[in-house]
Model the fold of this input.
Amino acid sequence: MTVYLIRHASAGSRDDRDPSDLERPLDAQGMDQAQHLAEVLDGIRPVRVLSSPALRCQQTVAPLAAAAGLPVEVADALCEGTDIEDSWALLEWAARQDGDVVLCSHGDVIPELIRRAQLRGMEVPGPGGCSKGSIWALRWDGDRFASGRYTAVGAHA
Done:
């Protein structure tokens, strides 16, 4: 199985003083990135699409979920600032599903999950990263994440 771990697309500037940051939507570039992500992942047929409660995350995977005929399910364990144990438990749960799963999260959660997977033996044959709108494809071998492939996906011109 493969878990596709996606960082939300461009959503303008963060304002840490704004209590409604969870409601910050994608900007125009982010909407293009979300559409392009759906095109890049057109060949996969996920069985579930889960997202952080943040609107920008839900909007990032909405085109992909729509193309697959699936709802975007909200998962608190993908939210910014979530305890890594909760996020890791969700990632492992996703890997054990009967088919590929898409998860959308944030720039603080994703690097920690990748780091933990690497410490547990996951090989990353190329460069890594966590740019907005990027994808980590994590291949599960039944016991652990065996390999991870990073793809930076920008909006197409």
